[in-house]
Hints:
By secondary structure, the chain is of the alpha+beta class. The protein folds into 2 domains: 3-25 and 105-179, Ribosome-recycling factor (Topoisomerase I, Chain A, domain 4); 33-100, Gyrase A, domain 2. 59% of the residues lie in helices and 15% in strands. It has a 4-stranded antiparallel sheet with strand order 3-4-6-5.
Amino acid sequence: xxxxxxxxxxxxxxxxxxxxxxxxxxxxxxxxxxxxxxxxxxxxxxxxxxxxxxxxxxxxxxxxxxxxxxxxxxxxxxxxxxxxxxxxxxxxxxxxxxxxxxxxxxxxxxxxxxxxxxxxxxxxxxxxxxxxxxxxxxxxxxxxxxxxxxxxxxxxxxxxxxxxxxxxxxxxxxxxxxxxx
Length: 181
């Protein structure tokens, strides 16, 4: 692989990873510990991720349990979850925090599926932009002959096709997960 196809592959891989991260944050009726990744807790004046302050367990499909290692941070964690945009009401039993995930309504599942399609399209656009940049770089590379340029562009197109195929597969899986009751 040349430098151009290598750079294109790195950009495409980053786009796919970003899509995976975005899909992990889409809330379904199933408990997913990754939805807590972005929530910061005020811990002794420092904004700290929940995952650094507590263990997060999934005892059943529709429940998350957050168990702080430092019991004095229990109230701060609960407050941070309440103030987040998760739309989940935490219940504190003095030792841990329970987060019940109610099954979304039919209408909400359709909205989530639509949101997933939008995220996937953004991923496709990012992949196509990586292809465009790689093709421009190939055109500017004066060390490559015309045949070598064509071969490079063909390899970049193959990478693009594979990345788009992976995005479509991720979307299909996530949509099925979202629409599941």
